[in-house]
Each structure stands twice: as structure tokens, then as C-alpha cells.
Specification:
Number of strands: 4
Order of helices and strands: HHEEHHEE
Distance between the termini: 111 Å
Strand content: 15-25%
Largest sheet: 2 strands, antiparallel
Radius of gyration: 33 Å
Number of helices: 4
Shape: elongated
Length: 132
């Protein structure tokens, strides 16, 4: 019957005792989430695994967002409508590695003083020549 009076007469604690709710920390977005939210392409190497018995063998684990795959499709890395995103990214990564190897080989060949190439030209008539 006098519940309202009890509530009214109950002392209120001082401000320093009143527990204020802690502000919630905003979840930090990952680099991939930030890029995706901004509509930017994202690709990253998550992990590299090497065979300890054969260090020239290994694998890479990649992570990407849909915008990155869309860019690869526009660049011609999709060969079939049945290609998965992983197929497309794998094709791109293989091509990237191939270019690194070729560039390294070209630099090696250019800097190798023992590399002597002979260019031979042979007249095959009618103002044409064969070069080998």
C-alpha cells in the first residue's frame, strides 16, 4: 500500500557511488573490412608455409575482398564462368610469381659477363634475311 512512499524515501547514493555504464568500445575494423567498406580492392598474404626438408617448396595463403576479384575479372583473369574466386586469384598470383622469376632471370642474364650470344644473319634472297 505504501510502496510508492518507500521508493520516495529511499536515499539516493552520491554521484561517485552511482555506477555509470561504461562506454562501449567500437570494434576495430580490420584492414580488409576498411577496404571493403571504402569500395577498395584488398589482397594480403596471411601465411607462408615452407617444407623444412625442402625449402624450395611451399605455399601461400591469401585473403582478398570481392572488389579485388572484380578487378581481376575485368583484367581478364577469369577464363570460364565456372571459375571460383579462388581460381581467379590463383591465376593472378601464379602470373605475378612468373613475372618476378622472369624479371630476375633477365637481370641475371644482363649482368652475366660470361653470357656471350652470337647473332647470325643469313641472306635468303629477295632482300630478306634469316636471323638466329
Amino acid at each position: 500500500m505504501f510502496d510508492w512512499l518507500k521508493k520516495k524515501l529511499r536515499p539516493t547514493p552520491p554521484d561517485d557511488v552511482v555506477k555509470k555504464p561504461k562506454p562501449r568500445k567500437k570494434k576495430e575494423l580490420s584492414e580488409k573490412e576498411r577496404a571493403t567498406a571504402a569500395g577498395e580492392p584488398y589482397v594480403s598474404i596471411l601465411k607462408i608455409e615452407l617444407d623444412p626438408d625442402s625449402l624450395h617448396e611451399g605455399s601461400f595463403e591469401l585473403d582478398w575482398n570481392p572488389k579485388f576479384v572484380a578487378n581481376l575479372v575485368r583484367a581478364g583473369y577469369q577464363m570460364s564462368p565456372a571459375d571460383t574466386d579462388a581460381d581467379i586469384v590463383d591465376r593472378w598470383f601464379t602470373n605475378l610469381c612468373r613475372h618476378v622469376v622472369l624479371e630476375t632471370f633477365e637481370q641475371y642474364e644482363a649482368m652475366n659477363p660470361n653470357n656471350t650470344r652470337t647473332i647470325r644473319s643469313r641472306d635468303i634472297g629477295d632482300g630478306r634475311s634469316e636471323v638466329s
